[in-house]
Amino acid sequence: MAESTPKIQILKGAESDLSAATYQIHDESHTIGNALRWMLMKNPKVEFCGYTAPHPSENHINMRIQMYDGLSSLTALIQALKDLDDLCVTIDEEYSKSLHNDQYERWDEKS
């Protein structure tokens, strides 16, 4: 039986207090990388955040996070993931509400 790869790993070279660390996020691409980087950079305690997709044939991204004042980059990452999830839920709810309540031209395609 093959061992499963954890969704997120901390790569070598991280500060012991995790104030600066690179996280490898498996089975993800630029779609989550760019959105997560944007959400992290909205946090004023984040000094730097960037990500790379090392190679198109490798199905992961590397996310580098550096914090001010020795704060934990892991805490910032978890909060950014929660905030991004909340944002997606809000967008989905507003889209569904608009789709049902607003006036659009509708048609049934007959094949």
What does this molecule look like?
- The chain has 111 residues and is of the alpha+beta class.
- The chain is built from 2 helices and 4 strands, in the order E-E-H-E-E-H.
- It has helices at 30-41, 73-101, and strands spanning 8-10, 20-26, 46-52, 60-67.
- A 4-stranded antiparallel β-sheet has the order 1-2-4-3, with helices on one face.
- A hairpin with a 7-residue loop joins strand 3 (46-52) and strand 4 (60-67).
- The mean pLDDT is 94.
Helical residues, percent? 25-40%
Mean pLDDT rating:
94
- Please report the number of helical segments: 2
- Protein structure class: alpha+beta
Low-confidence stretches: none
Rg, rounded, reads 19 Å
Please list the strands of the largest sheet in the order they lie side by side: 1-2-4-3
Q: SSE order in H/E notation?
A: EEHEEH
- Portion of residues in beta strands equals 15-25%
Shape: elongated
Largest sheet: 4 strands, antiparallel
Q: N-to-C terminal Cα separation, in Å?
A: 46 Å
| Annotation, overall tally of beta strands | 4
